[in-house]
Amino acid sequence: MAKSDLKLLGSLGSPFVLKAAIALNIKSVDYEFIEDNLAPKSELLLQTNPVHKKIPVLIHNDKPICESLVIVQYIDEAWSSGSPILPSDPYDRAIARFWAAYIDDKWFPSVGGILYAGGEEERKAVLAQVEEGLLLLEGAFVDCSKAKAFFGGDEIGFLDIAFGCFLAWLRVNEKANGVKLLDETKFPNLTDWAERFCAHAAVKDVMPGTDKIARFAKVLQARKKSAAAAAAPSK
User: Fold this and answer.
1) pTM
2) Closest Cα partner for 68 from 55, 59, 81, 79?
3) In this predicted model, what pLDDT tens digit does every residue of 143-182 receive, in sequence order?
4) pLDDT value at 227 more than 60
5) What is the dihedral of CA 188, 136, 194, 70, to 10 degrees?
6) Backbone dihedral region of 137: left (phi > 0), alpha (psi from -120 to 50 degrees) or beta?
7) Taking a C-beta distance cutoff of 8 angstroms, is the pair 133, 110 a contact?
8) What is d(CA 41, CA 224) in angstroms, rounded to the nearest whole number?
9) Using CA atoms, how far apart are residues 191 and 216, in angstroms rounded to an integer?
């Protein structure tokens, strides 16, 4: 396939874009990466994702696919090369989708909330939420992996991608707050899994370093403050 037939629009500072990049690597699919720093949002982004106006967008034969988990599922269905991403068993597939939705909708917002905590008490409360989620995911790993290396079994699967794309953000928060969130004594299975995941051939070349994520986070913080200031009533 020519690279021009497949494009990924986004920024690799975004964990949601990272999901798509890892899925494409698992399938050994060549693609063109188009950087969009969202400041301002490009015309291509606004044309291909007019509903949410967010990255990532996968453009396949000029047809856009939006939303990161939808994109991963599309990649799994569109290319038979590489290992399957979604489980073959309908129940296992439903469970993987359940936990992936939990991570996106519930757990990761608490991770992001650490950056925006208004004071020490709020920060402690958010950190407790993050740890509570990690405890749930530790149990999910035991159940889903069936004593194998990844959530998906012997190879990286849908839930590995859904959770693993946030590991760099977790490290940034650990460094910024002087805490150990993914503690090997509390979460031994997740700690070992995280090392295997980051070392995997489909992940290691696209996983952003903590410095890149820290810069990306500062940009997001600045935008949030600017938006809040613009929305505040004038005195």
Assistant:
1) 0.90
2) 55
3) 999 999 999 999 999 999 999 999 998 988 888 778 899 9
4) no
5) 170
6) alpha
7) yes
8) 16
9) 25
